[in-house]
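Weekend entry, working from home. Most of the wet-lab plans are on hold until the incubator is repaired, so I used the time to fold the two sequences that have been sitting in the queue since the last round of cloning. Logging both here for the record. First:
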Amino acid sequence: MEFLIIDFILHIDKYIGIFMENYGLLTYLILFAIIFLETGLVFTPLLPGDSLLFVSGTLAASGSINILLLFFILSIAAILGDSVNYWMGNYLGKKISSKRFVRKEYLQRTRDFYDKYGVKTIIIARFIPIVRTFAPFIAGIGKMNYSRFLVFNVVGGILWVGIFVFSGFFFGGIPLIEKNLNYVIILIIIISLIPVFLEFFRKKR
């Protein structure tokens, strides 16, 4: 299963192209579902996020997808995903986090981010894989005021989706990037993981 997810992430441009060929407008719904699940369920932190948004933007640049509709749909998916994740943490947090299918190191890593950044973690975590999935869950467990959470959720969701989708839209058409999109995806993943590794080594020291 993990190998399939890794293959999907590294070749996401091809998969989205296949979706477009076979499902047409339903591709928007498929992209919505992936972003919603990646942000909304603590069981699916390895689904693509940053790379999916960027590649979707590159397809919009080619005219395959409407950029404004894409931005709107994926922003809603990101905001709803975090909200669902928050309420899961609020109502089921202790029961779920005690199960083996939720990795304790992911929970602890997210708690460390909360200790360092406070409520701003909701926005910052949008740009950090894994932490992005667990931040709203931890906020729910901690009974953060939902109105306050929602403000940071909306701001973070719009920023995250907007930055990556429009980056793909404006830069994806450049021949160098277009021909080396797989390497660009890998670079995006590496860059997004840098804060996690820095925090890990800081804790070790």
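Second, folded right after the first finished:
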Amino acid sequence: MRPAPDQAFPNPQIHSVCFIKNVVKNPRISIGDYTYYEDPDGADQFEKHVTHFYDFIGDRLVIGKFCAIAKGVEFVMNGANHRMDCVTTYPFYIFGGDWTHAGMPTRNELPLKGDTVVGNDVWIGQDVTLLPGVHIGDGAIIGANSVVASDIPPYTVAAGNPCRVVKNRFDEDLTALLLRLRWWDWPIEKIERNWAALTSPDLSLIRALAPENQG
């Protein structure tokens, strides 16, 4: 019996791993099937790791399917940004009272960077921080303790502060093939039939699934 994508804890014996699509309540957070957060201190508390998420800004966090997200990840959204084009970055206006209108910016004056988007089949290591508006491509790997401040291409390994690409996972032809195959969108039955190709270091198996090699 396969794990059910609509259950928070697909393995009832392991509550440190949660399919987070089923526990997140904020409508501006979108998470694909089978994406999990691993945290023995509260895997179902993923939403607490998405900070500075304010309704008036309207940004979204979009995470694809089959992602593996380790303990301690932090998604910092656009509400954390301060204006940097003034003498001070201090947001007097947020404290209300006599300060309510002290330099209160309009939405257009805020340094907004858009939605934060994580592709499919992305592995994010422990204690990674993702800053507002970054896009992480399908199949990327983000090393532990990294701070992601800019976009990360598909099928690369990236690490550091600031996070930078360390290497490509595969050659250009295989990367292009994987982006065409989009295995994460296959019916689960097809994924199960092709486990040998998806989980083997013998990359000739996945290359054989290219449409031009089918016959």
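Plan for Monday: verify the second prediction. The helical segments are 172-181, 188-193, 195-198, 204-207.
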